[in-house]
Amino acid sequence: MTGPRFGVNIDHVATIRNARGGAAPDPVRAALLAERAGADGITAHLREDRRHIGDADIEALMNALTVPLNFEMAATQEMQAIALRHRPHAVCIVPEKREERTTEGGLGVVQDEARLAEFITPLREAGCRVSMFIEADPEQIAASKRIGAPVIELHTGTFAEAHLSGDNDKRARELARLADGVRIGTEAGLEVHLGHGLDFETARMVSAIPDVAELNIGHFLIGEAVFIGLEEAMHRMRLAMNEGYARGRAKT
Fold first, then answer.
1. Is 196 a residue of the active site?
2. Is residue 201 annotated as a catalytic residue, yes or no?
3. Is residue 125 included in any domain, yes or no?
């Protein structure tokens, strides 16, 4: 049985480190532990304000990892230059606002199509697999296809928040919207990933959606690792993903 790939975001190991300063806990050590525990890839977001991951972390990850690095970044010239210097396996273009605590939604590809098409061209030419972090909106999916991005990552935050709030009707609507987005993206020839705010139960639910290629999960895993360890948190998450995938297969 083969379900979605499992990408582990290690940003918030760096958040804990930076809260006190110094070198511990080391996000690279966490990434290597995740790799040994079976992660298919590692995600790290180098924000413009460097609130968690720093430039040295990206360099160390590039030197240490044997699984792919997914480099999340804003569409700025500074970040483009860093990506071109390191040439990670993948770059995921995300919206970024200084005042937000975490990414609040998807990128407006439709609203910035010409600039983003030009922006991602040198990244693609350098061999980076470009992904656009967007809402499950048909117009944003179509625009991502037009600019030449081979991958989209659909924002699951609204779905995850509905689940946590106990709003089952909204959760069902958002899950259906994600499923439609995955279908539309797949039919357009794009590889579709999902991420943001997922926990064991929501990861189980979205893993049942046909054709989801990858889940990227971070904050919840790092939080669970405080209590049960990162390897065990990853084991339980992989189990949840596999259960969801099996349920989805049983329905088809």
1. yes
2. no
3. yes
Residue 211 has pLDDT above 70, yes or no: yes
CATH number of the domain bearing residue 163: 3.20.20.70
pTM of the model: 0.95
- 217 assigned to some structural domain: yes
Is-catalytic flag, 99?
A: no
Q: Are 107 and 133 in contact (CB under 8 A)?
A: yes
Q: How many domains does the chain have?
A: 1
The pLDDT, as a whole number, for residue 251 is 80
Q: Which of 72, 135, 174, 214 is catalytic?
A: 72
* DSSP code string of 178-204: HHHHHHHHHHTT-EEEEESS--HHHHH
Confidence (pLDDT) at 103: 54
Quick one: tokens of 102? 């975490």
Query: Of the residues 45, 52, 155, 163, which is catalytic?
Result: 45
CB neighbourhood size of 126 (10 A) = 15
**pLDDT (tens digit per residue) in 234-243:** 999 999 999 9
Which residue out of 52, 86, 193, 196 is catalytically annotated?
Answer: 196
Task: List the domain range (segments joined by +) for residue 46.
Answer: 5-247
Asked if residue 211 is part of any domain, the answer here is yes
Q: Is the pLDDT of residue 101 over 80?
A: no
- Residue 252 is assigned to a structural domain of this protein: no
